[in-house]
Design brief:
- The chain is mostly helical.
- It has eleven helices and no strands.
- Helix 2 (40-48) packs antiparallel against helix 10 and helix 5 packs antiparallel against helix 6.
- The longest helix is centred in the last third of the chain and has 32 residues, at 232-263.
- This is Peptidase.
- InterPro entries: EcsC.
- It holds the Pfam family EcsC.
């Protein structure tokens, strides 16, 4: 079963090579590692131990409801931020600065518990979005374009943990394919209306789709913060893993989009899938420049 990835950016007119340079191929390999083998649960389990994975099976219904509502609210706030203010100048050393700020919000959340999640999550999500936008800009994206702003938000849905599909392709392209239509419709709506109304059906479908995937990762974050470790210090550590996770996904996502603009979506997807399918890294042959 094929997946529609029509939201991929078409390359500009000009030279289009049928073979990637060695440098671009190496960048694509790095993107595959980030997008196919990055998991917040793995990061948290390494940091806090197996109890995080075990706790994932025991999420209270009330806690799950709080997490889902907080994730949806965070996406609404992020949508406004993405479409209204991401075109401002990047912050120097933004990755480090945003990590410090998100860690600080995690410290507050760790001290106050689940009651703070509806407040802490939109704050940390907004900070992560700014960091994602700076990563996108570094990979040649025009942050002033609605489609690019939505691509920044899309990063929050790219964790493939728990994805059940019949797709015979990478998790990353499967997720992009599932969201392709909603991304296209949302971008078209914003471009044509020139306004931000999160209740518009096109935008609501997109934010709901992203929030449903984002909520899975937020649940992992919540469980880790609820694990009896070091209180506020533990909350800061969890949020640091949280932002590093999405920064890594963003880097991989925007590397792929940059290469799609240069080589075309079909070539990049085919080579990405070949790399992702290789069990042994030694099987991956980098083409000559």
């Amino acid at each position: 079963m094929s997946v529609d990835t029509s939201e991929a950016v078409e390359p500009p007119q000009g030279r289009r090579s049928g073979v990637m340079s060695a440098g671009d191929h190496a960048a694509l390999m790095e993107a595959v590692r980030r997008l196919e083998h990055t998991s917040l649960m793995v990061r948290l389990a390494a940091m806090l131990g197996r109890q995080v994975s075990f706790a994932a099976q025991l999420v209270p219904v009330r806690a799950a409801q709080v997490v889902n509502k907080a994730a949806a609210a965070a996406m609404r706030v992020a949508l406004h931020a993405a479409l209204a203010s991401l075109s401002s100048a990047p912050i120097r050393n933004s990755a480090r600065i945003h990590r410090v700020m998100v860690a600080a919000s995690g410290a507050a959340g760790g001290a106050l518990g689940i009651a703070s999640l509806p407040i802490e999550l939109p704050v940390s999500t907004g900070l992560m979005l700014r960091s994602i936008a700076d990563i996108a800009r570094a990979e040649g994206e025009d942050i002033g374009q609605p489609e690019t702003a939505l691509a920044c938000l899309q990063v929050f849905a790219l964790d493939g943990r728990g994805l059940e599909t019949e797709f015979s392709e990478s998790t990353y392209f499967a997720l992009r394919g599932l969201m392709a239509r909603s991304v296209t419709e949302a971008a078209r709506y914003v471009a044509s209306r020139g306004l931000i109304d999160e209740t518009a059906p096109a935008l609501l479908r997109f934010t709901t789709q992203v929030a449903s995937r984002f909520g899975v990762v937020v649940s992992q974050k919540f469980l880790a913060q609820a694990t009896p470790v070091l209180g506020a210090l533990g909350g800061a550590a969890v949020n640091l893993a949280f932002i590093e996770h999405f920064q890594s996904l963003a880097k991989g996502h925007f590397i792929v989009r940059r290469l799609e603009r240069k080589y075309g979506a079909d070539l990049v997807k085919a080579e990405y899938s070949r790399i992702a399918a290789a069990r042994d890294p030694d099987e991956i042959v980098t083409p000559a420049a």
